């Protein structure tokens, strides 16, 4: 959600506030995450933004148009960055998996709350269920392809990709809320389990530095 910057424009000497498209989208995303898709309503959002419904129709054709754009935003963040990280050139499979791990560290790359808001929405809508299934398949296939580039056969690569990806999704669904300081000492073990290879100490140290830098930036 950090990609959606709020920009408020003040109009005229009266001090009235005009909500921008980004304001509507940001509030709609926050509402989707906190209250579910049923609460993403034009009238409710307009009241919270203190603007009339006509402001909404400057930027969106309909409520469905807004919902479609929320879904597209989810695709262009959560799915896009996993796929990009999986496709990133890497000298070793350890480095390849570490690239994917970056998505679990930085919520600018993968927002778990948004992902589970979409999963909750999918329980109500067959169309969203299809979109979610397609996204899960795209993410797993990208990770599978990463393993195959490093010499794993297709079946082995597919299973490792599913274990890596669905373990993390399950981790979020359980809401374990484990601090990164508790998870970081196990990075070498995770890398060993996912790849079947012993991770070099310098790779683990590089990832630890990445985590520290990311957490420091996000504080």
UniProtKB/TrEMBL annotation:
Looking at the record's lineage, which domain of life comes first? Bacteria
Q: Enumerate the InterPro entries for this protein.
A: Homeodomain-like_sf, HTH_TetR
Give yes or no: UniProt keyword DNA-binding.
yes
Q: Which Gene3D superfamilies did the record assign? A: Tetracycline Repressor, domain 2
The name under which this protein is listed is: TetR/AcrR family transcriptional regulator
Positions of the HTH tetR-type domain: 18-78
The GO molecular function terms of this record are: DNA binding
What PROSITE patterns does the database record attribute to this sequence? HTH_TETR_2
DNA-binding region listed in the record: 41-60
Source species of the chain:
Mesorhizobium ciceri
A Pfam family this chain is assigned to: TetR_N
Sorted keywords for this record are:
DNA-binding
Tell me which SUPFAM superfamilies the record gives: Homeodomain-like
């Amino acid at each position: 959600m950090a990609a959606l910057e709020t920009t408020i424009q003040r109009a005229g000497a009266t001090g009235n506030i005009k909500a921008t498209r980004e304001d509507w989208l940001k509030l709609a995303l926050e509402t989707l995450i906190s209250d579910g898709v049923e609460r993403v309503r034009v009238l409710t959002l307009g009241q919270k933004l203190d603007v009339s419904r006509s402001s909404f129709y400057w930027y969106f054709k309909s409520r469905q148009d807004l919902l479609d754009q929320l879904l597209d935003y989810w695709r262009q963040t959560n799915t896009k960055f996993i796929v990009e990280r999986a496709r990133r050139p890497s000298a070793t499979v350890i480095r390849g998996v570490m690239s994917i791990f970056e998505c679990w560290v930085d919520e600018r790359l993968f927002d778990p709350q948004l992902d589970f808001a979409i999963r909750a929405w999918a329980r109500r809508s067959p169309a969203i269920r299809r979109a979610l299934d397609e996204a899960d398949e795209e993410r797993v296939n990208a990770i599978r392809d990463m393993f195959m580039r490093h010499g794993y056969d297709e079946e082995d690569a597919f299973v490792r990709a599913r274990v890596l990806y669905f373990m993390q999704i399950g981790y979020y669904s359980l809401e374990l809320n484990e601090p990164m300081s508790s998870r970081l000492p196990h990075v070498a073990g995770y890398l060993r389990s996912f790849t079947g290879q012993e991770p070099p100490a310098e790779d683990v140290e590089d990832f630890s530095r990445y985590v520290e830098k990311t957490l420091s930036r996000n504080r």
